[in-house]
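fyi for ur records
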Amino acid sequence: MGGFDSLLSDLLRKEIESYLGKTTVHKIEKRLFEKYGMTLTESMNNFANLDDTLREIFGGGSRGIVRSVLNNFCSLKKNAGKKDSLVMLHNPKMTEMILEMLGDKDYRKILDMLIDQSLTPYEIFDKVDIPQASAYRKIDILVNSGLLVEDGKVPGNSTGRPAVKLATLYRGLDINIVKNKITVQVKISRDMLQKSTIFSTLYSV
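which gave:
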């Protein structure tokens, strides 16, 4: 799992359980395991399997149910004619995590560097003015959070393994504060968003 699905998976599972109840979620997980050998959390990596299971249980309205759940913490906005998609964040925990990372200058350096290019970790170390141990840890956190994703590999030398190239799905951030309520809108590469099994199943991206 990677990219935007990493940001969404834990929250979406909890929201589905809250919305449908533990008994129904148990029924969904039982059927998922029977058909695909996976749990509800694991199905976020291949959302088409979850979508198929939900349609079997709930019929044609299942996508409407999941969209309603998903809209509790984020929603997709049209951005016609642009390379980027706009995702509005509604969930305070998700918003806090994004703002905390982007408030760190080292995280911003790494993300800004990768907006228009993909680089290996070693290339990032060479270009960014951050101690290597700290840069490695921060890159690892960004990958685990879903803000950095794998974007191909480059051949290694005669004795080394191929090196992973990293890119960012983040392309900018708009923050609005109205009556003490913070609204965060994240610009995400449409190419990266299309790799999200959740969004590509529920929406046309």
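The two ends are 18 Å apart (CA to CA). thats all i got for now
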